[in-house]
Structure formats: C-alpha cells, structure tokens
Design a protein that fits this description.
33 strands; 6-stranded mixed β-barrel; Cathepsin D, subunit A, domain 1; mainly beta; 11-stranded mixed beta sheet; 5 helices
Length: 413
C-alpha cells in the first residue's frame, strides 16, 4: 500500500512551498489535437502498472495510485540510471506505526505517458532504504507512482476488462462523460488535497448498515480496510485472523474478517473481506479507511475530480467472489517468483515449513511470474482443498502439498 502523503515540518517548509508551487504551475501538452490518450496497462499484484517516460527516458513502470498526493520515483535498477538532481529532503507518510521515511525532492521533471506530456513537475524520490516493504532490488517491480498530478488535470478512465487507461482533457470529445452509454452510474466523491473520498454504506457482521467515508485508493492492493477508532459503529469482527503487513510508515496490524455487504452506488457486493486496522490505519480528512483495488477492479471507472464525481460500471469481474486467504502466508512479486513476506504460525504454510523470505517458484505446477501472481494468489484463497507449492530453501528447491482451510477463529474476549 503506497498512499504517499507529504508532511510539512520545520526546515522542510520552504521546500514544500516550492514543491507545491511548481506542481501548480506545471504545464501539460498533447501530441495532437485529440487531447486524449489511451495506453495499455498490466495488473501486477492488483497494482495498475503503466509505461511512463521520465525526462525522455525509455518507458519505466509506474503504479497508478489515486491515494498518492505526489508523483514518486522509486529507486530501482531502472530508475538508478536516470540523471536526477536532488533539491531537498522531505518526509512522506502512509499507513503504519513506524517512523516516516525520508525522501528527496526533484524539480523540473518531465513525464510522458502515451500522447500527453507534463512539464515542470516536482516529484518525490524514494531511496529503497526508505521503503519498508522492499528488502532489495529483486523485489522492486515498479519504478514509480503517478497520482494526484494526473487525476486533478484529466478525466481518467480505467477499463479493467480490456486493461486500458485513458487520460482526456475534461472538455475534449473523448473526455465528455455524457457520451457514455447508459450502463454508467454517477457517484459523488469529495476531493481533499487532491485525494478522492467516497461516502457509502457497509454492513459488517450483523447486517446493520453504517455510513462510512473511504479513501478511493487504486494503490491499495486489498479490498477494504477500516480503522475502528474513527467510527463508533465500526466494531471488530467476532470471527477473524490477524495479519501484519507493511505500509509506507511501517508495520500495520489488522484483524481480517468478512463483511456482510458494501454498496458502491446502486451495486452491492456481498461477503467482502475487510481488514480492521488495529494500528496504523488511515484517518486523514475524516476517513474511516481505504477502498482498494480488489474491489475497484470489479468496476470500470471514470474519475472526474473537477466536478467531484466518478462514474462506475460493473465489469466482467463483478460476479467473481472475493475470498479470505486460506494459506496463512503473504506473498509479493520477486524477480524469480514470489517472496514470502509473512507466515502465520497456526497456518498450513507454517506446517509445511514455509518461512519469511523464502522464494516461491511455482504454484500448482505453474511458474510464478509478475504477470500471473495475482491469479496464483487467488488460488490460495480459493475453495480448493490443497495446492502444490515449490520454493527455494537456501539454494535448494523444496516442494510440498499446501492444505487450504479457513483461518477464521472466534473472538474469545
């Protein structure tokens, strides 16, 4: 989860004033008079990955993150080759309970995506040592993040069915939302400091509906997270399992359970997994949590920030159920497969000897790659009784049968 937020403090204030001014005065231009561009994207571990050129470079891999208040270049094997000049330090923050990472400002940056180019941007450069969820460059599968500076300028359309993304000038023919077919539904949003928030209804366990406010966060891989301390009606689930994950500002502890239902416009999703943040949850601008890409990808989306609205249309993934993890391990992309980030001690993964930092090379006989890791992770939450897993143990490969079962436990308090 990225959710990059900039912090103002002390000696950084001058840097941040300059940063904000540069982005307010940055310009954009189009290759032709159509004033629109459409590019294909890859969906890697529920992240939307786009080809973005930096200062005329070959295309790099950037995550489209509606929860990012700034554009970020992440230190990677590819971005290290860019001639970048650091202009000052700044802290960034996200979910998590640890210290806020130190990053650097890079001024006068040009980004190109398809037929549109942004000139004169100030961006954030994050060294890998400031990113708690990557151990080394073999785990870094993207080179940066684009967020607010694109969403606030353009009508942004995400077509998950065809894996296409469009940026359009709001007044262009392509950008005209009124030309869409009748299957689209308008949903009001609030935009605070270039971040989008949705007020909607969720029923947790007892079916009683609550009104909640969520950050719409395409950079958050999961379905939904809630921060109970922000709303007296949000009660932690009676049946759950616990997880520890990494946010931008350190570790995040959660209880994971099933919701009864959640509304997005007139559409209702049932039995959606929800993470209840025990610590380090999202609370900015009165938010009660995050609405992530596992739910958002069930819809095709159009964001219209200037008019504080989005349009949604259920897509071909809408009927596909969302399941809770049944393996007991959390995996993330790695250069040679998937790296195990955590293993629950009461799980089947722990029982067959899987440990943190092991490298999984295949699941059910299929070699794990960046492009299929999302699909293979779904197997670990499926109703299958077992899957076969092969992983690297030091320099030797080990294989075993991983039994899948419900991890939900009754709260004994």
């Amino acid at each position: 989860m990225l959710c990059v937020t900039l912090l103002l403090s002390g000696c950084q204030l001058t840097n941040m004033v300059q940063f904000s001014y540069a982005n307010a005065t940055a310009t954009h231009s189009w290759v032709d008079d159509a004033r629109t561009t459409t590019v294909g994207f890859e969906l890697i571990d529920d992240h939307i990955i786009l080809p973005v050129s930096v200062n005329g470079s070959e295309p790099l891999r950037f995550v489209l993150d509606s929860g990012a208040a700034a554009t970020v270049i992440l230190e990677s094997t590819h971005s290290k080759k860019l001639p970048l000049e650091m202009a000052g330090k700044v802290e960034v923050s996200g979910v998590g309970t640890g210290p806020n990472p130190v990053a650097y400002i890079i001024n006068d940056t040009n980004l190109a995506l398809g037929n549109v180019r942004l000139d004169g941007l100030s961006v954030i450069y994050l060294p890998i040592t400031s990113v708690p969820f990557f151990n080394d460059f073999d785990e870094v599968y993207f080179d940066g993040v684009i967020g607010a500076q694109f969403f606030e300028r353009f009508v942004v359309e995400i077509d998950y069915d065809r894996q296409l993304l469009s940026f359009s000038e709001p007044e262009s023919d392509k950008g005209s939302i009124f030309k869409r077919d009748s299957g689209w539904q308008e949903v009001p949003i609030e935009v605070h400091s270039s971040l989008p928030f949705l007020t909607t209804q969720i029923a947790i366990e007892d079916g009683q509906s609550l009104e909640i406010k969520l950050l719409i966060d395409t950079g958050y891989r999961g379905p939904i997270s809630l921060t109970p301390d922000t709303h007296e009606g949000i009660e932690e689930p009676s049946q759950f399992y616990t997880t520890t994950s990494q946010g931008m500002s350190g570790s995040v502890q959660s209880k994971v359970g099933l919701s009864h239902s959640i509304n997005l416009g007139s559409s209702i999703l049932t039995a959606v997994p929800v993470s209840f943040f025990i610590s380090g949850g999202h609370t900015d601008y009165g938010s009660n949590g995050l609405l992530g890409n596992e739910v958002l990808s069930r819809f095709n989306l159009i964001f219209d920030y200037p008019n504080e609205r989005m349009f949604i249309k259920p897509n071909q993934s809408f009927p596909v159920p969302l399941y809770l993890d049944r393996s007991g391990m959390l995996i993330r992309p790695h250069r040679i497969g998937a790296v195990v980030k955590s293993v629950a001690k009461d799980s089947a993964a722990y029982a067959i000897g899987l440990k943190t930092n092991d490298l999984i090379t295949s699941i059910d006989g299929t070699r794990v790659t960046h492009l299929n890791i999302t699909e293979l992770k779904r197997l670990l939450s499926s109703e299958r009784e077992a899957v076969s897993v092969c992983w690297m143990l030091t320099d030797q490969q080990t294989c075993g049968e991983l039994t899948l079962s419900s991890r939900l436990r009754q709260d004994e308090l």
